[in-house]
């Protein structure tokens, strides 16, 4: 049973904040930067080709962050896609700084978040960011202060909607007392369900759940149940992992990332993979 569609539209849609309808398979733009998510990629034109191809394949949700590069991912997105096609939602994040390759440090002080957001607006060539996400919770800064800063930016018209990343249920609840939260971006995959309680809250409240590391960056086990299901569908194990995420919840919005057009096309084709109920249950048992 081969995959029938290679277009992101096959994944269906969800709505962010009541007014932004997007297809449920997006693109994560972290890996279009250099090694260690640091500096420019070895082939900038190739990276821009990946972005353009994603849009050609029906992707209308691209996720990035000021810390990717830093700045590089946002700059490449603007160079490749601006002026942006109608309906394209670009989400970015602030709250992490980069002292060096593969190094990440939290800075969620209100003044830093404002600086980060205004820098993203310039780099992305936008007057307003559709979805701005707090990239992490900074243990040195009260969450209420960080979220309050995003609420101020929203009131100023610089942000349309606010999301969170790397939060637990208690932190999500505290943030929602300050401002409507339309998305949560946490690590989640077939083999990593630590954020299951957060996903369940998102399902109840109609909040989009954006799983990062959905393919475990190539570390996904390819034998056993995943391998058997992949063979049955003439698909790759990575396509099966994405199909499982899409089947797991109607609020799920996977954002696989890559620097390769070939891998991008493989990922987006997963939108057309339909798992049988028994296959879904067998795969679900792997992370139980």
What strand order characterises the main sheet?
Answer: 3-4-5-8-9-10-11
- Uncertain runs are none
The CATH architecture classification is Alpha-Beta Barrel
Strand content: 15-25%
What is the CATH C level class, in words?
Answer: Alpha Beta
Shape: globular
Total domain count: 1
Give the number of DSSP strands. Answer: 11
Q: How many DSSP helices? A: 10
CATH topology, which one?
Answer: TIM Barrel
Rg, rounded, reads: 18 Å
- From N to C, what is the helix and strand string? EEEHEHEEEHEHEHEHEHHHH
Largest sheet: 7 strands, parallel
Describe it.
The chain has helices at residues 44-56, 72-81, 110-124, 143-155, 169-176, 196-205, 224-232, 237-248, 261-269, 277-284; strands at 13-16, 20-23, 27-28, 61-63, 89-94, 96-97, 105-106, 129-134, 159-165, 183-187, 208-212. Helix content is 37%, strand content 16%. The two termini are 27 Å apart. The protein has 10 helices and 11 strands. It is an alpha/beta fold. It has a single domain, classed as NADP-dependent oxidoreductase domain (TIM Barrel), CATH 3.20.20.100. It is globular and about 55 Å long. α1 crosses α2 (72-81), α3 crosses α4 and α7 (224-232) crosses α8.
